[in-house]
Amino acid sequence: MKKLTTLIIASFLIALVLYSVVEYTNGAEESGGEYNVSGDTDQEGTAIVPPEADEGIEIGEQAPNIPLQTLQGKKTNVDHYKGKPVILNIWATWCPPCKEEMPGVQRFHEKYGEDVTVLAVNATSTEEDPSNVSRYIQKEGFTFETLLDKEDQLSEKYQTFTIPATYFINSDGTIHSRKFGPMTYEFMTDKMKKLD
């Protein structure tokens, strides 16, 4: 009797999970991949690396020199941007908290872009259609540097547990601080003042 009850409960939970996945997928297809962004920047973000993965890059360590690609298809890397502070933001087009913070990132870039490089690194391997990245950036009119992490090398090396994830990097390439989850323009401005 106990085994039968356990089997029934387990079957119910599996069915519930499958139903939720189907409903979520159908909802995303019906909306054309667009999501209603709530305006709540207290959201935690969205997981893209398994929780059992290593810690990743720590504060004080040198930012790894990861090969990336520009939206125009040119190869670049993280070291290319050394010499002034960098705000490295990992994001995806399907991530509502990422979309929520983007206007603030743009505003920051417009005001402080001469002093601090903003790198918006797209977790491209998680995108349903990689061409969504360039369409989204163009549609929204964002002008900060957008790079593609097509091979997941940056996300894996940094062990990005959730996105958005942001690393504040000093001009010498060392990690000053980091933030998991969305950030505001004011948060970025405050962090910028502490970068070397």
From TrEMBL:
Name of the protein this chain belongs to: Thiol-disulfide isomerase or thioredoxin
GO MF term set: antioxidant activity; isomerase activity; oxidoreductase activity
Superkingdom as given in the UniProt entry: Bacteria
CDD domains linked: TlpA_like_family (cd02966)
Keywords: Disulfide bond, Isomerase
Pfam families, A to Z: AhpC-TSA (PF00578)
Domain Thioredoxin: 57-196
